[in-house]
Design goal:
By secondary structure, the chain is of the alpha+beta class. The protein contains seven helices and 20 strands. The protein is globular. The chain binds fe (ii) ion. The site of fe (ii) ion has 7 residues, from strand 13 and strand 17.
């Protein structure tokens, strides 16, 4: 049986006389149709939470520290400059070590963006990048979500004992931090990284690497100060993998499934996974039913066919969003859709066109009052439809 969920207070209910929320009274247009197929997920979640506690993982993994965006070898500077031009992040460091050249972008209070390219050697993500619309950029994707841990050896040993596969046989120890990351997930093609700071927090460079001089520059434009922290990323996955992907993310982090929104029109489910007190939320978008044909399936299933499962967009909290989006447009940024929403609906948001360097879309989002959702019904319909243009 279908259920309804309120976009404001997230109350789930079976029916409503006038289409409004029985708890907070919001009107019909704010209430989503909600399929009942979260049953399996809801059944598994307490088991995973219990298992995390029992094995000692609870409290071991914190908020997102950074993301690693790998690009083609010739695109490190242009991709970094794009982030500098269209986000609030600034370059704080650039270095190379044996395997990579890296540019570290930072905004106070936000997860870092580490733009990097490989200097050679193998790329474990390569098989995940070979899809009709992405094979021309075989090294390009948002690869890794790096979370902070207080005890990386403990995390590594517990997860290894559970059969989790990592890219290395042991934890990598650098001057300022220790690091380890999982192999790319067969569900999302994302990797989860763990970092334990030892020395100066936030310093990724090491004595085995050297500083490099990159031709990157933060444009001197005031409106870039309006673009704030990384609010969420949305990973697009196949319909059949939704439950497993959410559960996998819960097992590898301390995040918990929060809620799911079903949009039948676009054959799409958006599942939100959060950690109490964390700035960053993980969003997974999947189809409700598997791909049948490219013409009839919704944008999400089509996207995973064309690009493979991967992060579709990064969302940044944006102040003065009307003026900021206007300025971004004046600076040459293309958008998939106009700015949608209103203070009454609780938020405004829009999506940029995908970057040719990273394949990533930027979402600019502003919430009003205590609204803590990710879209309104009118927005999600338009936004999901807009991505069909990709
Ligand atoms: Fe989003």
């Amino acid at each position: 049986m279908s259920k309804l969920v309120c976009a404001n207070c997230m109350k789930v209910f079976d029916e409503s006389k006038d289409g409004s929320c029985p708890k907070c009274g919001l009107g019909e247009h704010q209430v989503y149709e909600f399929s009942n197929s979260d049953d399996y997920l809801r059944e598994r979640i307490p088991i995973i939470i219990e298992e995390r506690k029992r094995s000692g993982l609870d409290g071991l993994v914190g908020d997102l520290e950074g993301i690693i965006v790998n690009v083609e070898p010739g695109s490190l500077e242009s991709a970094s400059n794009e982030f500098l031009r269209y986000t609030g992040h600034s370059c704080i460091d650039a270095f190379e070590d044996r395997g990579h050249r890296s540019c570290v972008l930072r905004k106070d209070g936000s997860a870092d963006i580490i733009v990097r390219s490989r200097k050679g050697g193998g790329n474990p993500f390569l098989p995940h990048n070979r899809h009709p619309e992405s094979e021309h950029l075989p090294n390009t994707r948002l690869e890794t979500f790096v979370f902070e841990t207080k005890d990386i050896e403990k995390y590594f040993s517990i997860q290894k004992s559970k059969g989790v596969e990592f890219l290395r046989d042991d934890v990598l120890h650098k001057d300022n931090y220790s690091f380890v990351q999982t192999v790319p997930s067969r569900l999302t093609a994302n990797s989860i990284g763990l970092i334990e700071w030892k020395g100066e927090k936030g310093n990724y460079s090491s004595s085995d690497g050297q500083a490099i001089d990159l031709d990157v520059q933060k444009p001197d434009r005031d409106y870039l100060k309006n673009i704030g922290t990384l609010d969420h990323t949305a990973t697009r996955i196949k319909a059949k993998d939704r439950d497993a992907a959410v559960l996998e993310f819960m097992r590898l982090t301390n995040y918990d499934f929060n809620f799911a929104i079903y949009v039948k029109l676009f054959n799409s489910i958006t599942s939100v996974v959060r950690l109490s007190g964390a700035e960053y939320a993980a969003v997974f978008t999947s189809g409700i039913s598997p791909l049948q044909t490219l013409e009839t399936s919704g944008p999400t299933e089509k996207f995973t066919y064309n690009y493979g499962p991967r992060v579709h967009h990064m969302a940044f909290i944006t102040e003065n969003i009307d003026d900021t989006v206007t300025s971004l447009k004046e600076d040459g940024m293309g958008f998939l859709i106009e700015l949608l929403g209103s203070p009454e609906e609780g938020l405004k948001q829009t999506f940029s066109e995908p970057s040719e360097k990273t394949l990533l879309v930027n979402e600019y989002i502003h919430r009003f009052g205590d609204f803590d959702g990710f879209f309104t019904k009118s927005n999600v319909t338009n936004l999901t439809g807009a991505t069909d243009l990709q």
